[in-house]
Amino acid sequence: MKDRLFCVAFTGLLALATAARAEITVLIGHNENGAPTPSFDFRRVPHPAKTGTMGKFTIVDGKMDDASGGLGKLNDGRMPTEEDQPDENFFFNADTPGGRLRLDLNQVKTIKQINTYSWHPGTRGPQVYKLYAATGAAAGFNAAPKHGTDPAACGWTMIASVDTRSKDSEPGGQYGVSISDSAGAVGDYRYLLFDCSATETDDGFGNTFYSEISVLGPEEVAPAGAPSGDANPVESKPYVARTPDGKYEITFDTSRATNMAEWTTNKLAPALLEWYPKIVAYLPGDGYEAPKQFRVILRPGNGVADTSGNRVNAYVPWMKREMNGEAIGSLVHECVHVVQHYDSHPQNPHPARNPGYLVEGIADYYRWFKFEPQSKGAEISKRGLARANYDRSYRVTANFLNWVSEKYDQDLVPQLNAAMREGNYSTNLWTKNTGKTIQELNAEWKDALKKKVEGSAAGGG
Ligand SMILES: [Zn+2]
Questions:
Q1: Residues of CATH 3.30.2010 domain(s) within the chain?
Q2: What pLDDT does residue 111 have?
Q3: How far, in Å, from the CA of 308 to the mean position of ligand 1?
Q4: Which of 285, 386, 404, 438 has its CA at 20 to 30 Å from residue 49's CA atom?
Q5: Number of alpha carbons in the 13 Å side-chain half-sphere of residue 325
Q6: 316-363, pLDDT tens digit by residue?
Q7: Ligand 1 ion local residues (Cβ < 5 A)
């Protein structure tokens, strides 16, 4: 696969006056005909947003081809699975020069990235379009400028001109385009207008098979890291694998850590594929479905790992140092965060705040007492005893959870988790499940820890 980078500077009148300059970047990814990838993997163009894009597409000018799957295909998050699948794409009618599509995001939003994807073995593969954006608030705004009307003259801002055709390769294959602004966001807009052209006029079949258009806000775009430089594009292809039960898919991206690709495929992936379904089974919820897909990205940076939604970031320097140590366990901990999924409370408009020590404590409880109990990583030493308290987070809270579970209620952690996921956590839950307040449990636990430490010291004589 090949990617090309275009930096296009647009200098508006205002920008001239203030010397400020928005620099739009257009990245193009191409998997040549006959070499497709199942999830539209490109080296630098991100994957399509699996969740789709909120908003509504409308044809402003032109006519849809009746064989097309319709406008809904553009933002449903689903991709065609074959190279010539008319009903999984949107395209304008044969023998027409293209047309104009408007996306209404329903409200003004900060747009960080606009990604467009297409797939066809012939001239309906490449993409040729101009992109405009508008808030809708400009005086004289025309929401539906037809062919022949310059959008820039009726309230629209020109964002980019895209042409993925290449002189040195045959047209056809999978194409991905990613439009962003090097300085930050593309802008705050409600409407996007795609002025699409046919890719050729030799015959009537030059209208692009558009598979998906993803519009991403700041929280949906991963922070930019170091460019992959001269990394071998073949090695940088993500490793996509399914869990043994076939239910879940994990993508492992080592494009910025190619020297960890082997460890990732041979050591990390088998462990997470085995354990993710177990975590899902251990932390159920009424009507709750854990994410079916998520990504683990090995990336440069400081720290250990973090999780945001369906994206797990694993930071290379630490992971590399801990390859044969704590790396895999730390990512099992992150998988628990993927399953916890505490950020959404669909049934609960006024969710209670989840204590951070418990969020981390549950993840570490699973890691240390279910995944790798033999490592005894959450034992509390004589020195740690003085500082032990139920709310010290991570391993200490994990140890507390384990003690209360064993003594009072083996189902405690799944129950706490389910309440937290629904935004219904309260300290009363401890009393309800054990008959003791959390403070009483804390005191008992510390007592038991003390006895254990003293006992083992005496026993070891
Ligand atoms: Zn964590």
A1: 239-340
A2: 92
A3: 10
A4: 285
A5: 8
A6: 999 999 999 999 999 999 999 999 998 766 677 888 889 999 999 999
A7: 360, 363
